[in-house]
Amino acid sequence: MIKNLRELYQYRALLWSLTVRELRARYRASVLGFLWTFLNPTLSMAVYALVFGKLMPNPDSHYPYTVFAALLPWIYFSSSIAGGASSVSDRRDLLTKVRFPAQVLPATVVATNLVNYLLSLPLLIALGLVFGVTPTWHFAFFIPMVLLQTLFTLALTYLLSALNVAFRDLQHIVVNLLQLAFFLTPVLWRIGLAPEWAHRPILYLNPMAALVNGYRDIFVDQHLPHYKPLLAVTGVSFALLWVGSVVFERRREEFAELI
């Protein structure tokens, strides 16, 4: 684990270069370009707010903002996992020509989506002002929250990208599992509204539930996040990063042959 993190730092210039290249390529042929960074989550929020905030009864007076605060980190996570699972198997051009540091590829996907997430934050704050939610000192806790989510996302991405090289169906399974996980994660609903049998102990088995709820605590409810679920996510993230790094390191020499 330490070796992989050290190598990521060693190749940080390459990581940043690939991230910038990916960001430019993502919207190169688009008329609106980087505006899609704001439009994609905004349009999704508008649809969910219409269906669950207007067509269905909802006691939350600023439901669109409540959803948006949870939707942005979910998009960051799901886009990173979906793209990261095939990040190694899709880059045969790099892995077969030179001795390329393969661990940079999953990290590039995560870094690209992290930048998109950060660019969307001004829109989140602006939407909060529309609904009368002004920033408070609790917003400072966004930094440890996003660092924790990045650690968890990177750990899971390493593991999935290494396994997907030999088992290509995994990337398709992951996409379908993410759709299921979206509705099991409190993005469109609050944990307090869950049935008694599915209350916090069970829901927090999903690390993203704790993270999404933490973001909502600081942005919407404006109080400190519940630390116990986040400590559990921290432990899971480090354990997963260790497992993912071991699997990735053991299979790295096979990547060029298998793809």
Structural class: mainly alpha
Low-confidence stretches: none
Largest sheet features: none
Annotation, overall tally of beta strands: 0
Helix content: over 70%
State the helix count: 12
Strand content: under 5%
Mass-distribution shape: globular
Mean pLDDT: 80
| Rg | 19 Å
How many structural domains? 1
Order of helices and strands: HHHHHHHHHHHH
Distance from N terminus to C terminus (CA atoms, Å) equals: 24 Å
If you had to describe this structure to a student in words, what would you say it looks like?
With 259 residues, the protein is mainly alpha-helical. The protein has one domain. 72% of the residues lie in helices and 0% in strands. Helix 2 packs across helix 6, helix 3 crosses helix 4 and helix 10 crosses helix 11. It starts with a helix and ends with a helix.
